[in-house]
Amino acid sequence: QKEVEQNSGPLSVPEGAIASLNCTYSDRGSQSFFWYRQYSGKSPELIMFIYSNGDKEDGRFTAQLNKASQYVSLLIRDSQPSDSATYLCAVNGRAGTALIFGKGTTLSVSS
Amino acid sequence: SQTIHQWPATLVQPVGSPLSLECTVEGTSNPNLYWYRQAAGRGLQLLFYSVGIGQISSEVPQNLSASRPQDRQFILSSKKLLLSDSGFYLCAWATGVYNEQFFGPGTRLTVL
Lengths: 111, 112
Fold this sequence. Notes:
The complex is a heterodimer of chains A (111) and B (112). In chain A, the strands form 2 sheets. In chain A, strands 2, 4, 5, 9, 10 and 11 form a 6-stranded mixed β-sheet that branches. A 5-stranded antiparallel β-sheet of chain A has the order 1-3-8-7-6, with no helix packed on it. By secondary structure, chain A is mainly β. Chain A is globular and about 40 Å long. Chain A is built from no helices and 11 strands. Chain B is an all-beta fold and 112 residues long. Chain B is built from no helices and 11 strands. In chain B, strands 2, 4, 5, 6, 9, 10 and 11 form a 7-stranded mixed β-sheet that branches. Chain B has a 4-stranded antiparallel β-sheet with strand order 1-3-8-7, with no helix packed on it. Chain A binds chain B through residues 31-32, 34, 36, 42-46, 49, 51, 88, 90, 92, 96-104, and chain B through 32, 34, 42-44, 46, 49, 51, 57, 59, 88, 90, 98-106.
């Protein structure tokens, strides 16, 4: 059973701090990794994806991938109250056509 | 730019009634299409995916079915709803080489 694990949280950070969200996956053959943000009652929104070991930056967001440790993380710099949401980690699955999602980490940014 | 539509936005149905949810994508051709369900307190569960017209793969055996009658149209159906079918139904599309998926606004289904 291929799995994606995330700490459910809630992760609470003050405004302006760095939020660090973590994800581990079981399928060593996974090739691409995704972070989605989901506000309460809304559908998931793709923030960024990564497929090579190392860091990938996009504005205030940085995705980090370590395939040897089967570990993906998302850093959010200068966290804002509007970043308060559930963050879903997803990993590409069988034949690259299906994503396997974690259950998500709830982030709360206090002003 | 690409747009994905789902309707209806919310639906309340009695147990045993039929279901039809529709998803359409604009601004792209030959997308992979997906149906997910998100139940309260649970993660996203892939129900069906399609790589082309008439091609449907089922991930979870259940009382739901899917069809793709046109390139950019994906339909989720049931002949008789169960209480356990309640949830947030999401359609998604993908065309990129890394299979990055983009979700529609979703349909919130409550079965009573």
